[in-house]
Amino acid sequence: MICHVAGKYLDVISYSYYTYDVDVPLIKSIHEISGKPIMLTEFHYGHPEQGQTSAAEMMDNELQKGQAYRNYVENLAASGCVVGTHWFEFYRPGCYRPMVSGI
């Protein structure tokens, strides 16, 4: 329902999608329902030794992180309806803490 209505007013559908295994049929259904191209505006993979150590999708090392990134971007590019992606890199705990803690 939201995709259908949003398609009337937006040029592109923006979607934050944290996953390793891209659900291409889901992405294509958003595109078909909205009639608009998709931009995945937030995703990230972390690992315990560098960068965000509390990412939604954790990898064991930088090599796995690179492979996960490649898998994600290549699957979305092959979908034919995604026009871009954005790697989530910055996290400022002071800004997000009230939302996380419920204060």
Please give the share of residues in helix.
40-55%
- Count, helices: 4
Please report the total strand number as a whole number.
Answer: 5
Show unreliable segments: none
Mean pLDDT: 77
Sequence of strands across the biggest β-sheet: 1-2-5
Radius of gyration: 15 Å
Question: Could you explain how this protein is built, in words?
Answer:
- It is a single chain.
- This protein is α/β, with parallel strands linked by helices and 103 residues long.
- It is 45% helix and 19% strand.
- It has helices spanning 2-9, 24-34, 62-79, 93-101, and strands at residues 13-16, 38-43, 45-46, 57-58, 82-87.
- Strand 1, helix 2 (24-34) and strand 2 (38-43) form a beta-alpha-beta unit.
- Helix 1 (2-9) crosses helix 2 (24-34).
Present the secondary structure layout.
Blueprint: H1 2-9, E1 13-16, H2 24-34, E2 38-43, E3 45-46, E4 57-58, H3 62-79, E5 82-87, H4 93-101
Parallel strand pairs: 1-2, 2-5, 3-4
